[in-house]
Amino acid sequence: MKVTILDDNLDAIRHLPSYRKLAGHDVKIWNDHTKDVDTLAGRLADTEALVLIRERTPIRAPLIERLPKLRLISQRSVYPHIDVEACTRCGVIVSSDLHPGRPSFATAELTWGLVIAAMRGIPQQMAALKAGRWQTMLGTAARGRTLGILGYGRIGGAVAGYGRAFGMKVLAWGRERSQERARADGHEAVAKEALFERSDVVSVHLRATKDTLGLVTAADLARMKPTALFVNTSRASVVAPGALVAALKAGRPGMAAVDVYEEEPVLGGNHPLLKMDNVVCTPHLGYVERDGLESAFDAIFDQVLAYGQGRPINVVNPEVLEQR
């Protein structure tokens, strides 16, 4: 079977133990990134099974309709980047292991690393020390302060637990079921406006959907304290376009830490947040961690093998199976 893997920026996949599952198949791995439909159509012309790394490349109808040999898309987690309806129409199975009940602990850990790095100014202090200076800013401790979790799902719940361990009071906002879970965990569920007003740290943990698009508005950010920190390891689209940069320039919040951007990858240092001294930026590292990738691709490659054996699993669009 001809298998193509897109967007392996670190050339990491072929070094994973699970990669051995594809032995005997004709595998092509692309280490660069493109969204150009013509380029992708050329690269995927002979592909039968397409392996995706999360949401790095959108797979929409204009591309799918140009891939007559494509029969399977295998990936993990949610799939807002895939036009499932077009896949169904073209007879392409979408298999996605949603791993219910298990958060991305790697993302939660990175979130907490960003919180501490930003509050204590660790990257800025490292740069100053390398430049020959000593103690150039006064940081802030976490204990005794308030952590606001915007979206109390699996990752948000894990980050809330870290906040509690660091002696922070935790506020949560989300859908009613999420707020019920937050209360059950001993946290205070509040309105969105109150969360932004009262929190010293606001951390975003929401999926990118039509309902969350631009959910964090300029007005929300303006409610934050001038000493507060805004953290986003979720999706850039959750924040209204340009709102965070404008808010930081206006002084509310006073700091930000971000791992996600409107267009990725960000190359050449070409993003306004990278030019701001009060922002800590990382290149979408949340889930990119050795054990997490192995767990994900173990499941992704199992989906490829199951398709090859005529027994596809974790099928998002079972209508394709009925058509066949």
Architecture blueprint of SSEs:
Blueprint: E1 2-5, E2 26-29, H1 37-43, E3 49-51, H2 61-64, E4 72-76, H3 84-89, E5 93-97, H4 105-120, H5 122-130, E6 146-150, H6 154-165, E7 169-173, H7 176-184, E8 188-189, H8 192-198, E9 201-204, H9 218-222, E10 229-232, H10 243-250, E11 255-258, E12 279-281, H11 290-308, H12 319-323
Parallel strand pairs: 1-2, 1-3, 3-4, 4-5, 6-7, 6-9, 7-8, 9-10, 10-11, 11-12
Descriptive account of the structure:
The protein is an alpha/beta fold. The protein has two domains: 2-99 and 290-323, 3-Layer(aba) Sandwich (Rossmann fold), CATH 3.40.50; 105-281, Rossmann fold (3-Layer(aba) Sandwich). It is 33% helix and 15% strand. The chain has a seven-stranded parallel beta sheet, with helices on both faces. α6 links the parallel β6 (146-150) and β7. α4 packs across α6. The two termini are 19 Å apart.
Task: Summarize the structure in short.
With about 325 residues, the protein is α/β, with parallel strands linked by helices. The protein is built from twelve helices and twelve strands. The two termini are about 20 Å apart.
Q: Into which percentage range does the β-strand content fall?
A: 5-15%
CATH class of the largest domain: Alpha Beta
Number of helices: 12
Helix content: 25-40%
Query: Which outline best applies?
Result: globular
Main beta sheet, described?
7 strands, parallel
From N to C, what is the helix and strand string?
EEHEHEHEHHEHEHEHEHEHEEHH
Uncertain spans, ≥5 residues at pLDDT below 50? none
Task: Quote the average pLDDT.
Answer: 96
* CATH fold annotation of the largest domain: Rossmann fold
Which superfamily, in CATH terms, is the homologous superfamily of the largest domain?
NAD(P)-binding Rossmann-like Domain
Give the CA-CA distance, first to last residue. 19 Å
Report the count of strand segments: 12
Strand order, biggest sheet? 8-7-6-9-10-11-12
What is the total number of structural domains?
2
Q: Do you know the CATH architecture of the largest domain?
A: 3-Layer(aba) Sandwich
Class based on secondary structure composition and strand pairing:
alpha/beta
**Radius of gyration over alpha carbons?**
21 Å
